[in-house]
């Protein structure tokens, strides 16, 4: 039996490894949201405005309000939890 075939026939899954991977991914995302709370607006790609085909006229992006950045969903949750704990005191 070749090593490739032996590896393909091995079907034992380790749930501990999946839990560890999910935990590490969640911790990395939380750290990312704490350090970099804003992301580029997906509609205007961070420019904050749209240009006309001639390039002379432009208008602000409706989604980000012309800022070019939006608060990440994880940071929004982090801020909500932080404010809830502060209000509880």
Automatic annotation (TrEMBL):
Domain of life: Bacteria
Entry keyword set: Membrane, Transmembrane, Transmembrane helix
Spans through the membrane: 16-38
Protein name: Uncharacterized protein
Source species: Actinomadura hallensis
């Amino acid at each position: 039996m070749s090593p490739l075939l032996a590896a393909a026939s091995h079907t034992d899954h380790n749930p501990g490894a999946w839990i560890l991977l999910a935990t590490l991914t969640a911790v990395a995302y939380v750290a990312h949201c704490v350090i970099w709370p804003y992301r580029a607006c997906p509609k205007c790609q961070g420019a904050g405005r749209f240009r006309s085909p001639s390039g002379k006229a432009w208008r602000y992006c409706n989604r980000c309000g012309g800022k070019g950045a939006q608060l990440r969903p994880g940071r929004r949750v982090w801020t909500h939890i932080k404010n809830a704990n502060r209000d509880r005191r």
